[in-house]
Amino acid sequence: MSTLLSVENLSKHYTLSGGLFGAERRLDALTDINLTVEAGETLAIVGESGCGKTTLGRCIIQAQPASAGKVVYRPKAGGEVELSALNKRQIKPWRQDIRMIFQDPMSSLNPNMRVFDIVAEPLRIHKICKGRELEDRVIGTLAKVGIPAEAVGRYPHAFSGGQRQRIGIARALVLDPKLVIADEAVSALDVSIQAQVLNLLEDLKSEFGLTYIFISHDLGVVNYIADRVVVMYLGHVVENAPTEMLFERPRHPYTELLLEALPIADPLRRKGRKAEVRGEIPYLGNRPQGCPFHTRCRYAQDVCRAEKPALRRVNGTAQEAACLFAEELELKGAYEDGPVKVLHEA
Ligand SMILES: Nc1ncnc2c1ncn2[C@@H]1O[C@H](COP(=O)(O)OP(=O)(O)O)[C@@H](O)[C@H]1O
Ligand code: SF4
Ligand SMILES: [Mg+2]
Q1: C-alpha of residue 239 to centroid of ligand 2, in Å
Q2: pLDDT at residue number 284
Q3: Domains in the chain, start-ordered, CATH in brackets?
Q4: Residue bearing the bigger pLDDT, 188 or 252
């Protein structure tokens, strides 16, 4: 596999004003993120709400500037382009290659536009085609996601949640992208509809040779779709591993905590599992010193309060973790009673 995109030492902070006596506060949404996305893979980014997943997605597509670091894209034709160094005009052609699908199709689809125009808009903005060719391309793409030609004159409110997400997917795919960033793309859907949309994403991936960054707070969904998982906590990458390895033997205590809270499809296996992730997430503007996870970590030692662990390879494997004790800890995975696929086919 070749690297399609890399994120290098990327940080993003927000300055919040209007605190007590108008004081400014700095909120570090992302701290020194390093990751690569290999061509053809589905890379999941997981973590609880507020850990910086959406901010990372938006910094990758350059919808907002990073405070530091780089995003480098390597299109298959060869060569590389530092997206983070481009101005608005220069970035435009690359926006065809990297598309984002959002969580809430109701707010990301313009309610006053017909479905045809919603999907046609990116083709018009990028002046790709018009007339009959545009019509064919829009209707063809909608057909691929299961929206029939007779429905293209309707407005988004006439569709169900699952259908609206399909329209959002068509809007992303109509430009024939290479990399699709799906941000909580199935989180708002019922479980059975989730499985249908995930299966659709899988089918489209092989049909169009896509690469996905799949952002989700739900490890069950991630287990279903991802080849590799990046776990984020308070704006840091704390673990990065092939999906099987991560589920079998996590190397970061935060991953273990997330796996513990995973709802298991088979009720007999629910024993001892909690539905909630334990502990409270600290406020990002007031992050703990040392290991960012030490306030919630059941294995924390004194050294964890002083020393910040770097993300590093564990025992020379493909698994990376940012824990001082990644090698020694015997953390519990999700496969104790054999492999678990949380979502089953629709
Ligand atoms: N435009 C913004 N201004 C200030 N803070 C923001 C902004 N966008 C996000 N944040 C903060 O950055 C942190 C990460 O947010 P986000 O990337 O949306 O997390 P996630 O997608 O993982 O839930 C949160 O604390 C959020 O409140
Ligand atoms: S470094 Fe310490 S506090 Fe941080 S995850 Fe590892 S054991 Fe827990
Ligand atoms: Mg988000």
Answers
A1: 12
A2: 65
A3: 40-62+90-232 (3.40.50.300)
A4: 252
Looking from the CA of residue 329, the nearest atom of ligand 2 is: 7
Taking only the tens place, the pLDDT of each residue in 190-234 is 888 899 999 999 999 999 999 999 999 999 899 999 999 999 999
Residue nearest to atom 4 of ligand 1 (CA): 14
Rounded distance from Cα 27 to ligand 1 centre (Å): 9
Rg (CA), the chain: 21
CA-closest candidate to residue 204, choices 165, 230, 236: 165
Q: Is 326 exposed, middle or buried (0-12, 13-18, 19+ CB in 10 A)?
A: buried
Mutate to test the pocket of ligand 2, among 325, 328, 329 (most ligand atoms within 8 A of CB): 325
pTM over 0.85: yes
Distance 208 CA to ligand 1 centre (A): 32
Cα-based angle 106, 107, 109 (whole degrees, multiple of 5)? 70
| pLDDT tens digits, one per residue of 324-337 | 999 999 999 987 65
